[in-house]
Design goal:
This protein has helices at 3-8, 11-27, 31-38, 42-54. The chain is mainly alpha-helical.
Length: 56
């Protein structure tokens, strides 16, 4: 995500997008499908997925 893109997404939008991505991953959607739906780069979804997996 570009720096401008990060600035435009406020904290609530990020939380909502992360929750949606997590739910879509649980449902079996691919990273590419999630990125397309959320209009974010695949790399962002990958980092959120890794972040969620490392939280204990």
């Amino acid at each position: 995500m570009t720096q401008v893109g990060k600035m435009l997404m406020d904290e609530a939008d990020i939380k909502r997008a992360k929750r949606t991505a997590r739910n879509m991953l649980k449902r079996g959607d691919s990273l590419e499908e999630i990125a397309e739906v959320l209009e974010l780069p695949v790399e962002t979804i990958q980092s959120w997925n890794l972040e969620a997996c490392t939280v204990v």
